[in-house]
Design goal:
By secondary structure, the chain is an alpha+beta fold. The chain has 2 domains: 102 residues, Orthogonal Bundle (Topoisomerase I, Chain A, domain 4); 68 residues, 2-Layer Sandwich (Gyrase A, domain 2). It is built from 5 helices and 6 strands. The N and C termini lie far apart (51 Å).
Length: 185
């Protein structure tokens, strides 16, 4: 019983780390990367779709991302989605291809992006703590239902605490790496 709870907690914590990894990939660093825009929500065909589902994305140069929509009728919706996003990049279109020139980051913009990284990291920590709380609640329920002993509950709770520390350490390492990348001139 405790093994199942521990596996569930670990899986939830792993999802939190993966989510942060995806979120940090979308924070621009001054170098062109398609991961900046691939998960951008676009309002098209009466629903929201990710940009990667609507267009071919490429980074042919270090400071440029090109977006070639599969369907030209979605061009305006893609342009609106990019303009309304928090990327701070003005798209340029020639009717077939959208170009996103990635300007070099100013010191102020770098600090703003570092604040975004810290906010996203804190969201990840909250997710990990929620997984810990969920696991501890499950252990208490199992103990009250006499499915596990008090010693097993205490042992599993300390394992959950160790997992929490490990996963928060992973989140912090990801954030430090991204911060270093952002502050690099």
């Amino acid at each position: 019983m405790t093994e199942e709870i521990l596996l569930d907690v670990e899986e939830r914590m792993e999802h939190a780390v993966d989510a942060l990894r995806r979120d940090l990939a979308s924070v621009r660093t001054g170098r062109a990367s398609t991961s900046l825009v691939e998960h951008l929500p676009v309002d098209v065909y009466g629903s929201k779709m990710q940009l990667i589902q609507l267009a071919n994305l490429a980074a042919p140069e270090a400071q440029l991302i090109t977006i070639t929509p599969y369907d030209r009728s979605s061009m305006d919706a893609i342009m609106r989605a990019i303009q309304s996003s928090e990327l701070g990049i003005m798209p340029q279109s020639d009717g077939r291809v959208i170009r996103l020139p990635i300007p070099s980051l100013t010191e102020q913009r770098r600090k703003e992006l570092v604040r975004q990284v810290h906010a996203k990291t804190e969201e990840g920590r909250v997710s990990v703590r929620n997984a810990r709380r969920h696991g501890n609640d499950e252990l208490k329920k199992a103990m009250r239902a006499s499915e596990i002993s008090e010693d097993d509950e205490r042992r599993a709770a300390s394992d959950i605490e160790r997992l929490t520390g490990d996963y928060i350490g992973q989140l912090d390492a990801l954030a430090q790496e991204k911060e270093r990348e952002l502050l690099e001139v």
